[in-house]
Write a structure and sequence with these properties.
By secondary structure, the chain is an alpha+beta fold. The chain has a single domain, classed as Jelly Rolls (Sandwich), CATH 2.60.120. It is built from two helices and 15 strands. The strands form two sheets. Strands 1, 3, 4, 6, 11, 12, 13 and 15 form an eight-stranded antiparallel sheet that branches. Strands 2-5-14-7-8-9-10 form a seven-stranded antiparallel sheet, with no helix packed on it. A hairpin with a 3-residue loop joins strand 11 and strand 12.
Length: 255
């Protein structure tokens, strides 16, 4: 009996040791590996830094004095707070459009991002003025689509890789290949003043204080470039694979 009692006690002790070891192994298995940290991937860190830089740029842009356009009779098309009077254009792969710090922001899309007016606009004898800024990207930051009598046209700033300025389209030729084609080096983070005038006989446009378009339209074929830009009618503003800021959008009729 004494032998049996010793054997039983030894057996119970062995089970207890094995059971404790098993619990320790399970507990150890749930613990993070030695030296492990909640590391941020290089891609996430880069995206975070880019987002912070963009936020800072928007705040800086909003703080800069706005352009006081010459002349009277201007009617604002953007209130600086909401997208009232505008609808986000239904481009495939579009980025978001939102208001921030008094600016209209077009986020970078896979292709086009933009807005188009939901209000009636004149077809001729009018002027449009606005300020536009490239925030990120390398293509056009302002594609202004507008009526020309019974047709439409687009003023492109920074297209075809970032430098082309001109109208699309004249006689079926895009801004990169017709008589309005010019080249400008556009800086990121700089406001550009844009003014467009459409009259019975002409389309004119100015970039800051420089006239960049002076086109006689009589007898000419004026039309939009084929493709999604058609969705910008009758009046729209778009960017291409580029984030942009807009402000001070206004219009006036001409006598």
């Amino acid at each position: 009996m004494k032998v049996l009692r010793v054997f039983a006690m030894a057996l119970v002790a062995g089970i207890f040791v094995i059971g404790c070891a098993g619990k320790q192994q399970v507990k150890a298995g749930n613990a993070p590996p030695a030296g492990a940290t909640n590391a941020v991937s290089p891609e996430d860190a880069k995206a975070k830094a880019a987002g912070e830089a963009l936020d800072a740029l928007i705040k800086k842009a909003a703080a800069e004095p706005a352009w006081q356009v010459e002349g009277t009779g201007w009617k604002p098309l953007f209130d600086g707070r909401t997208l009232a009077g505008w609808a986000q254009t239904d481009f495939s792969g579009r980025g978001q459009v939102h208001c921030e710090s008094g600016l209209m922001i077009l986020d970078m899309g896979d292709s086009l991002t933009g807005v188009n007016s939901t209000n009636a606009v004149p077809k001729v004898n009018y002027e449009i003025a606005l300020e536009a800024m490239k925030l990120q990207g390398s293509d056009f930051f302002c594609g202004l689509t507008f009526p020309v009598k019974d047709s439409f046209c687009s003023l492109i700033l920074g297209g075809w890789g970032g430098t082309v300025v001109g109208l699309s389209s004249i006689e079926g030729q895009d801004a990169s290949e017709n008589e309005t084609t010019q080249f400008e080096n556009f800086e990121t983070g700089k406001w550009y003043r844009v003014r467009l005038r459409v009259t019975d006989k002409k389309i004119e446009a100015w970039l800051d204080d420089k006239q960049i378009v002076n086109l006689i339209t009589e007898g000419r074929t004026i039309a939009l470039r084929f493709g999604e830009i058609e969705s910008s009618k009758p009046l729209g503003i778009a960017s291409y694979e580029t984030a942009a800021a807009l402000r001070g959008i206004k219009i006036r009729r001409l006598e």
